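Section 3.1: Structural characterization of target chains.
Under the original work plan, the team committed to producing a structural model for every single-chain target entering the pipeline before any wet-lab resources were allocated. The record below documents one such target. The sequence was received from the expression subgroup and is listed exactly as submitted; it comprises 489 residues.
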Amino acid sequence: CPDCYHSTDDVLGWLREASAAAPRYVTYEAFAGDAADAALERTMPVVTLTDTSAPAAGKERVLMVFGEHSREVITSEVALWFVRAMLDAVGVDTGALGAGREAPLSRWAEFGPALDVFAGTQGLSAETVAAAAAGGAKAAWGAAIRRALLGAEIVIVPVENAAGRRDIEGGRLCDRVVRATGVDLNRNWPYMWKRSPSARRSETYGGPEPLSEFESRAVLALARRFAPLRSYVNVHSGEWALYVPWDHKSALAAPTDGLAGDAMDVLHAMNRFCRCKAGAAGAVSGYLAFGTSMDYMFTEMRVPYPITVEVFGDHNEGRTYAKRGADAVPTTGDHARSLASFDFLRPGRGSSVGSGRRCYTMFNPLSQAEYRGAVMDWVAALMVLVDRMAADGAAGAAEATAGGASVDEEAMAQRSERAAALAADNESALRSEYASLASRARASVASAGGDGASEIAAAQSSVMSSTSIATAPMVVAFGMCVLGAFCAL
């Protein structure tokens, strides 16, 4: 799909143009974070969406971070189209911006079906529900966007690791970390940070110390500037998934920890588009992650709706319901031909052509149908979130009492039911997925010399024979990360 993807410069250039064309709704800035980084001219692109004609007081704040890992190119595409969708709905001619003069989402075949699902989602704001009843799905979509712009400030980092994304465009198709330092930005946060003895040899190296990287410091400074945040969303690819804390342990955070009582309901509503595994990251993803931004935002910044989303996985990794027909995964030959036609990807020394392509396709869709399907699903899912955040206000927060936070028993019961339903959906996907993951890890380790292959094989056998899928996959996927294969989060 050579016409689908945008270079990093094109993404940021379009957002700058949008800021100039529609200053009432969108602002763009090169954010330094602190004076020291500013002095070194280190900046990170930041876009803020809100209707500035409405008073800022009382607006809920949502921070979304895209493009953290270099090879997860699709995530910044979702950011771009999310901004476009918001502006399209308030009458901005987004097709006139940028060099490509692209048609808006509303002209995609995927737009109408996604809006129908959106309008039927439970838990939308009263204004959105009323608009759906009166005027149908398009009216609901427009009402939700206008309500979000009036009632929220949506702060977006479209490309956190811009240098890394440009490395991908230069041909280093499998890079994940900050190339200059070898640091994984999603292991560089202070909460539950771990010092890695393997240092830069690992894809999940957390750095010499927490917040060693400019990008991490800048995101933290941004979160502090807009505190208190209602929601923090960290966007990745490599699978289809929706996660809440915890990352560092195999448990679901509770309202008594500060998680919103209806957080699982929000995940369920967003999952109408993802149709994927969802729940506590450490329990559902298959491995534990230490020093992540989601766990930090939850514990240290007290964000009640901290969410990690995984927007695409090759061969429907993570999906509990796979799309059919036009959205089917193309054949290997189609993948190779499509990748070869990308005019902004150039051969580089970071990886061999074959291995680079295989890696790239694990994290990014290559056909137009896959690309548009993923983008539209996640634009709509994120719209569900911001509609909820703008409407809920402080009502969804846990009530403080003299003895601590009180939790409504009925809400707790509903949360437990939702978690059980999601667990049932996850199980069948996990069995097939982690067998596949283990096979890949085994092949990767074997090709590197064979060390560890027997352990991976044993873990694979454990997954397939286990009567309880909850813990066995963690052995496989965590082992795969440790042994140098691919991690998503």
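The two ends are 25 Å apart (CA to CA).
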